[in-house]
Sequence to fold (387 residues):
Amino acid sequence: MIYHLVDFLHNQRILYINPFQYETLRAGVALTVALLISLAVGPRTIAILRLLKAGQPIRKVTIAGAPDLAEMHGKKAGTPTMGGVLIVISLVVPVLLFCNLANPLVWLLLLVTAGFSALGFADDFLKITKRNADGLPARHKVLGQVVLGLFVGVYLLLMERWGLVMVEYTYQQAGVAVGPTRGYAHLLVPFVKWFYPALGLYFVLHAVIVLTASSNAVNLTDGLDGLAIGIMAIVATTFAILTYIACNRGLANYLMLPYVPQAQDVVVFMGALVGACLGFLWFNAYPADMFMGDTGSLTLGGIIGTVALISKQEVLLTIVGGIFVLEALSVILQVIWFRATRRRIFLMSPLHHHYEKKGMAESKIITRFWIVSVLMSLIGLSTLKLR
Fold:
């Protein structure tokens, strides 16, 4: 809204300078405002959640020869959950203030935020009211993720067909620039600058897989104080850089990456997301005063998956978000191996609980996972030039 007001005043020659024409400035302002909103509203949010008795139930899992999860985290029982509401508030307000609301990609991200936060809220609400850790049945949660993935895939294809969003690829064959090729229904492969496989309508299925995987991966990682939100701040910062490259024709062409001019406001959205993550981390750092719950984790996963689709960096997301991938893989491998052999690969999955059961301090696990996440993000960014 402030963006449109400043733009109006500039067009009317009341303001002769329009600083908000630069997405980098708006992203920085959005980050700051999101952080300040989170710091201001956070204490009141915690107080309200405590008043509503929205405490986190702890699941009891017993494994011979290892400490029980309820024993390790028993002192956290009753810590306010559903704190993802704070993330959503501190994210949406600066987005509405500093983004161009005529941009269809902004509304896509806002709708994704609303959809995944509603799904997560339903799961948290059932956990709290039932006083157990089960929440929404798994099939219902997956169904909601699939529906939202279908929506995102169809939305992007329709916006492109109607000429409201453009994606342009320039690639090389035998050292010669070829293109541009257009369309969301292509896949960008890291390290390769001549191969853009066409997905056609399978892009919709691809979107479902990306969003379901990303939202579940972040959800599984959210098991220690500050772990998921710290990693998400790192990943979101990396994707803010990637979306800035995507909306800059010169940089995109130089690096042989897709050019998405409408991604300018996605940069601003990502700035607000980084600020919201840092603000929530203030209250979620060990020992946590508040948990994000599925309201936060599903929302963050859905957003980062959608931004990866918008910027055509969904394959790179598996590198940048490598910790999320490892956490999800640890659960998948554990389930498959246990069903086949009745034995476990890890003491407990997700992966962070395996190290916890081995006796490693929670704060040390969190810090080390953050360090690995920074390295994965740097590796992901390095692939841009290696193409």
